[in-house]
Amino acid sequence: MASFNASSNALDFLRGCVVDFDPETGLSKTAQTGKRRLSQMKGMFQDEAAREELSRHGDPVVYEFHSLPLPETPGDLAFGCSILNPGKVGDEYFFTKGHFHTILDTGEVYYCLKGHGYMLLEDPQGDWSAQELSPGKAVYVPKRYAHRSINVSATEQLITFFVFRADAGHDYGTIETKGYRKLLVEKNGIPTIVDNPNWKRG
Ligand code: ZN
After folding, report:
1. How many angstroms does the Cα of residue 108 sit away from the middle of ligand 1?
2. CA–CA distance from 40 to each of 28, 43, 197 (Å)?
3. How far is the CA of 115 from the centre of ligand 1 (A)?
4. 142 C-alpha to ligand 1 centroid (Å)
5. 7 C-alpha to center of ligand 1: Å?
6. What is the pTM of this model?
7. Strand ordering across the sheet containing 128-133
8. Mean pLDDT, the chain cut into blocks of 10 residues (202 residues total)
9. 20-195 domain in CATH 2.60.40.10?
């Protein structure tokens, strides 16, 4: 018995639900799943020719996310797991698309369950940082910062659990059109921050 409630209906989700997330796989029997394949990330990697080549040959799943279909109402929290596969496009590690929140003044927490990677943060004024993710570490994404997770392991998935205000909304378009100012690439076997030559100002 996972919980005790006066009644059992959809509102139980909003007043003390228990959701399963496997700490080894990030998978859930309760949450809904979304997938992003490499073909859905056109123009987002530095080496577009390499991305297209990989898309045509196998089109790997770059990442999955599992979250609940809860109402996006003020005062509630949205949460779920993100599962980012290992892989590279050219020398650039697999990453999630990354987003600002539509309500820009929204923080978020990512807690790393498995793997090794970074959370790349960038605000509209150009301040940026890359925070390391390893099991047991929680990264706080401050208000106003776009966030993208990056998997630097060659073999292991990067699994993180995230929580943010449910009505925050996602702005993927800004990153899709402008890109990040910085990229994380592998140089001599080491994760290295470089300027993004394709970053579009303004
Ligand atoms: Zn977010």
Report:
1. 6
2. 23, 9, 21
3. 20
4. 10
5. 32
6. 0.90
7. 128-133, 117-122, 146-151
8. 50 63 86 93 96 96 89 88 97 97 97 97 96 97 98 98 95 94 96 93 72
9. no
Ligand 1 centre to CA of 158 (Å) is 16
Residue with tokens 């943010």: 164
Extract long-range pairs of 52-58: CB within 8 Å, 24+ residues apart: 54/89
Answer positive or negative: Cα dihedral of 51, 151, 149, 165: positive
pLDDT for the residue numbered 195: 96
Domain ranges (residues) in the chain: 20-195
Q: Across the strands, what pairs with 119?
A: 131, 149
Type of residue numbered 99: H
